[in-house]
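Bench notes, bay 3.
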Amino acid sequence: MRWILRGVAAEPDGHDTSFCVGFALSPALSPFLVFPSLHGASVRPGRRSPRLIREFATFRVRRRGIAPSSLVNETRVVTLCLAYLRDHGRRVNSIRVKDIDAFVTGFAAGRAPPTIASACSTLRAFSRYLRATGRTRIDLASQIESPRIRSMNRPPRARPWRDVQRILAAIDRDHAPGRRDYALLLLMATFGMGVGEVLGLQLDDIEWKARVIHLRRPKTDIAVDLPFLDPVARALALYLREERPSHARSRAVFVSRHQPYQQLSGPSAIRDRIARYADRSSVQGGFLGTHPFRHSHAIRQMHIGAPIKTVGDILGHRRLSSTSVYVGCSRQVKRVVRLVL
């Protein structure tokens, strides 16, 4: 699907840049059991995994289009459940509801309701698979209940947009790693990138002449071509030209300051940098991490009137229900689509 975005991008200093650019969204789930992780490594059910788990994973990918990250979680839950049944002398063809209840009771200890609900959803899918393949005759799926999670039980942990601007303005771009941090956080705030997406960005993903950033959302494996806005282009150009080590072997855009100049990995380092800049800008209270930048971007889009479907496409959501949580945080609805910073 192709969208045309029109709007304005504004840097913290108030400089505005108009743009009008098209970008394509194309789901590309692999039919094979090899999946990209958040940082480029591959994830697959191991060859020592029981045949049943491998077949279930294949079914979920080929027939249901399950995202790689979700599949990893699903196979983990199914593996734990089968291990529990084996330890208690139960075979797959003799599973009863009481066995599932006992497993979920133990699994739920110390886990949050959303995690428990996700595990129950996986067990329902697994139970339907067992029945569809003739491994059991009992309809277990209809009898597996999960905790009720209200849609706004935990609203997105977003920061006020003014706080995002203050944090960006507090970054000292005259001293390393200021240009790197500014470009990195600017991408997160402008396009709602997650930490895995921005850290996984490669030099080859940027087309300077076409003014396009090629991005693949690691959670949904959806490919998105993002407009290379002037503020983002300037920030990246300054970092790449004046601060990024020219002899770094890694093709990642954002690398460490010291040898061997490896790709940045994990959200903890970025979270620490955000906390430092927030303290410098006197931004206090609330959650200070990497995800609030993504949430703030989404809520900002809703405030300025971006259609919920377009916001979901930009964020890489597959379902409108994933994006609808931001609607309750928005106060205005207009008919123009904008990416604003």
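Next record in the batch:
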Amino acid sequence: MRKRKMSILEQPPDPHRCHRLVHSGPAGGLAYPRIRCAADLAPGQNWREDVLFELQQAVNSYRFTQGQIGECDLKIQTYLTGLPKRTLEKSAGPDTAESPEPKKKKRYKRSANAPRMDLRGEPERICGSDLTSIDGISLISAMTIVSEIGTDMSGFADENHFASWLGLARNDSISGGKPVKGPKRKVNSRVAAVLRMGATSLLNSRSYLGARYRHLWRNKEPRVAIKAMARHLAVLIYRLLTKGGAWVDRGAAVIDHKHKEREIAALHARAQAHGFTLMPSAAPQ
């Protein structure tokens, strides 16, 4: 659509070409619509000068904005170059352990609004760990997180304090041993918003985190499932920034198997409570 608008303005308007480029469908179209009233047009003309002028103004505004964004990108690149490289000793924990098989790197798809400079490799150099290895955390999301909270996590006692600071922890107030409803905390955090968007992107992901989010989505309200998954992403980010390494995807089958085992254990417990014993049925032939 952008090329169509430019082609109309960068050459003398041709009546037949303008007629072919016009799109008057419900999904949107050019800034000037198809004119059916012959009284407004000159002989052999199917465009209006005032609408073309309005379109030219919009294009000039777009080009100016893109130039300003380009200058901001160059300034950001200068700041990124000046940041030191961070090195962390990789932990041998379950979430950061080395995978026996090398994990395929995410396919980088450049969006229309992505920065013009190449940011691949910058999060790992600055943080000492690859935040983009976590499913749901894109390159822009990782840079947003780093720009908001930095890389020093010493201000948080543990991962639970970090999640609570982001407003992603449960706000359970207890009085007399019973939960009571208290005022909701309103936390305006760009990091929390990024993590919530990352959580919603996992609905169709064939990964361990994707299976975890689908399980939450089936058993919880949507807003509760999104918040719970965003909290889990925050915990993983805290671990990578403090322990180093990279997130290793164990596959959706692992968490599906865990939930199956829990369901079977719950059925056995209910059967024993009523004096019964469950026996596996014969395999179907």
